[in-house]
Specification:
Elements lengths: L10 H15 L22 E4 L2 E4 L43 H4 L4 E9 L1 H7 L4 E9 L4 E5 L12 E6 L19 E4 L2 E8 L1 H9 L43 E3 L5 E5 L5 E5 L13 E3 L2 H18 L3 E9 L13 E9 L4 E7 L13 E4 L5 E2 L5 E2 L9 H9 L15 E4 L2 E8 L1 H11 L33 H9 L12 H6 L4 E9 L9 H4 L3 E6 L4 E6 L10 E7 L21 E4 L2 E8 L1 H9 L9 H15 L1 H18 L9 H14 L9 H10 L5
Antiparallel strand pairs: 1-2, 3-4, 3-8, 4-5, 5-6, 7-8, 9-10, 10-11, 11-12, 13-14, 13-20, 14-15, 15-16, 17-18, 19-20, 21-22, 21-26, 22-23, 23-24, 25-26
């Protein structure tokens, strides 16, 4: 409180006043941001607004930066360029009639294709090498990016050469799309690109802007330099104009006369094999000797070209193997194992994968045989196979065998559908191959579809017989519930034998009928007092269960209530077939709880369900019932028509209709029963469900 209010200030207030006065009396040193002329914080004006969904910038009276260079897109709308005029008015500018470039050209880009010379390769070898590239110009912000398409086995790092960024032209100005022209070189960051063409959208856009676009220029021919000594030729960086068929050189041939073939033996040593004989090596074996260096170089070059021509081309076969006796697991004897065989044409290697079925009882593994050259097996006289590999140290006999068989590996010509392939002692029968493999053999060997016989699949394991569910004779719980106590010490809730889709479609749909006990075959006669009992039979479509309820009647001697708990019901005692919805209809007699029960009537909802499913309930198809009755009346002739008219007139007279021939439900049923009883050929229509369907299909009057 102030002293003017008549109250003296408190001691705390006096201390605060003294502190404030002391703070104002202290001299604060002048530093950056404090003192005279120091900048004061001020709010930043809001200049971006939206009108009719279009963003625009309001112009304030603040000083603007000097105009910069004109952007390529400024001519579309000068108001949105960098050199827009400044005004001294704070009023918002008018709504622009055209969209700004960053909005009109969002995601729009122009693309040219061309090539450039690899200067590093030229400097190293002295021969030019060209590389493809694509130049992309983004119209929304005037940025440029350059990338090189990736090629398989090119031997160089390809991809983005220049990330998206603003670039300058030769004059030092911001690069525009007008600076890139087909047939003229363009320099971007000290690298010269030769533009050969553009796509259709770029050509149409440039024509719309008034820029002349020359015709397309083809890529130059292959100009790859020769590789250094001891290295192979790489894949061409630019495809030649007339590319021939890819080379296929599995071996090299030198000399003349009988001819000498150069191959790699099982040890990886290049040897000469005389096709005509007469060439001996130092050990005296006929037809084999070490190859000279020139032949080895030719063989290595052939292998390198084979890799470049057939890389990632694989032949795929499907094979099976019968598990022989004497294996690790006696339970697998006689069973069939499935395999997939891959043959790689790039280096003539083989890979074997096993297709493991579900619940096979064996641990799955990645590969049965990893990718490698598959040696051919030689059958020993005493049984088994001999490979001549994997023996350390090797004996003289093994070495002589290797020299006699320098090419003892599987080739793609050795694979045929229907023949066997030995994989280190495991005999695989090739039963089929894919379409790519068939096309390869057709083009290389001239094979037809007749050369690929369709082998029958091997016989699988014997089928497991289904478990027969024993009948429930205890009367306690359902049959599946009682069976669970046999399989488990702690029974689980049994699963319902119904699909989810069927349950979802029929959820909440119930068919209700009224029923009475009747006499039937194999059952004792029903007492007279029980024939008067009435039941409500409900069939639940969602899980195919049946429930019977007896409405309580006073002084009847029967308590009423649940007559049958909801459960799946069998069609007959001792049968494995259960009741379905198609078995329930008006007039049907069902065996329920050891007695025969006839369904006498159904509610409207049940009849509507049956009429909506004519295939499942053919007796509720009104069109089919009327057509069948019309054909039956036509076969019966005019006597049946006259009898129908007479019966309708009698019932109409009973109702006092005066000849209007308008019958109620009871009169209609009487007419049809009398007609079907006396007219020939109409006895099949004395059926409760047919008559109800016919009555519901006839026109009604109020």
């Amino acid at each position: 409180r102030s002293p003017a209010d008549g109250h003296p200030p408190s001691s705390a207030a006096m201390s605060l006043l003294n502190t404030d006065e002391w703070m104002r009396s202290v001299d604060v040193p002048v530093y950056a941001g404090n003192g005279e002329g120091a900048p004061r914080p001020r709010g930043v004006p809001q200049t971006l607004q939206f009108r009719n969904g279009i963003p625009f910038q309001t112009v304030t009276n603040r000083a603007t930066a000097p105009p910069g260079p004109t952007a390529p897109w400024d001519k579309h709308d000068p108001r949105w360029g960098t050199n827009r005029p400044s005004t001294a008015s704070n009023a918002p500018a008018a709504v622009p009639t055209r969209k700004p470039s960053w909005l009109a050209y969002d995601g729009v880009k122009l693309q040219w294709r061309g090539y450039f010379e690899d200067l590093e390769t030229t400097k190293r070898t002295g021969l030019p090498r060209v590389r493809k590239c694509f130049i992309t110009y983004h119209l929304e912000d005037g940025t440029v990016d350059v990338r090189e398409p990736r090629e398989v086995n090119s031997g160089i790092v390809q991809g983005p050469l220049l990330h998206r960024m603003p670039c300058d032209n030769a004059n030092g100005e911001r690069m525009s799309f007008r600076d890139i022209s087909v047939g003229e070189p363009i320099t971007i960051f000290s690298r010269t690109y030769n533009v050969l063409g553009c796509d259709e959208f770029t050509r149409a856009f440039l024509a719309k802007e008034g820029v002349h676009v020359p015709p397309e220029i083809p890529f130059p021919h292959e100009r790859d330099p020769e590789p250094p000594k001891g290295q192979f030729k790489s894949a061409p960086s630019v495809m030649p104009a007339a590319a021939g068929a890819p080379p296929r050189l599995p071996d090299a041939t030198v000399g003349g006369g009988g001819g000498v073939s150069v191959r790699f033996n099982s040890e990886g040593v290049a040897v000469e094999v005389g096709t005509g004989g007469g060439v001996d090596d130092a050990r005296g074996s006929t037809g084999v000797r070490p190859a000279p260096p020139s032949a080895i170089a030719g063989l290595k070059e052939a292998a390198g070209r084979q890799f470049l021509a057939y890389d990632r081309r694989v032949l795929r076969f499907f094979g099976t193997c019968e598990v022989p006796a004497g294996g690790d697991d006696a339970r697998l004897v006689g069973s069939t194992r499935n395999f997939v065989v891959h043959y790689y044409l790039a280096d003539d290697t083989v890979e074997v994968l096993e297709v493991m079925p579900g619940n096979a009882g064996r641990e799955p593994y990645g590969k049965f045989l990893k990718r490698q050259k598959l040696p051919k097996a030689t059958l020993n006289p005493g049984g088994g196979y001999r490979y001549g590999v994997g023996i350390r140290p090797a004996s003289d006999e093994t070495l002589r065998a290797r020299r006699r068989e320098p090419d003892g590996f599987y080739h793609w010509r050795d694979f045929r559908v229907g023949e066997d392939v030995v994989v280190f002692g495991l005999v695989l029968t090739l039963r089929d191959c894919d379409e790519h493999t068939k096309a390869w053999y057709s083009s290389e060997c001239g094979l037809t579809d007749d050369d690929f016989p369709s082998m029958p699949p091997p016989a699988g394991p014997p089928p497991i017989p289904p478990r027969v569910v024993p009948p429930n004779v205890s009367g306690i719980g359902s049959e599946a519930d009682s069976l669970n106590s046999v399989y488990r010490l702690v029974p689980k809730v049994p699963k319902k034998d119904v699909s989810f889709d069927e349950w979802l479609i029929n959820q909440g749909q119930v068919m209700r009928f009224t029923g009475k006990l009747v006499d039937g075959p194999g059952k004792p006669p029903v007492p007279e007092n029980e024939k008067a009992r009435t039941f409500v039979v409900s069939f639940f479509l969602e899980d195919n269960t049946l429930a019977v309820f007896e409405p309580p009647v006073p002084n009847s001697g029967y308590p009423g209530g649940k007559y049958l708990e909801r459960r799946p019901a069998r069609k007959a005692s001792g049968s494995n077939a259960y009741l379905r919805a198609r078995d329930c209809r008006v007039g049907a007699v069902l065996e329920i709880k050891g007695t025969w029960m006839r369904l006498n009537a159904a509610d409207d909802a049940t009849l509507a369900i049956m009429e909506a499913r004519p295939k499942e309930f053919p007796l509720s198809d009104a069109r089919a019932v009327v057509t069948a009755l019309t054909q039956a009346m036509a076969r019966a002739g005019s006597p049946a028509a006259k009898e129908l008219s007479r019966l309708c007139a009698v019932e109409d007279a009973k109702l006092g209709g005066g000849g209007a021939m308008v019958l109620n439900r009871a009169a209609f049923l009487n007419v049809m029963c009398e007609l079907c009883a006396h007219a020939p050929g109409l006895g099949e229509f004395v059926d409760a469900q047919r008559l109800i369907t016919l009555w519901r299909g006839l026109p009604k009057v109020s």
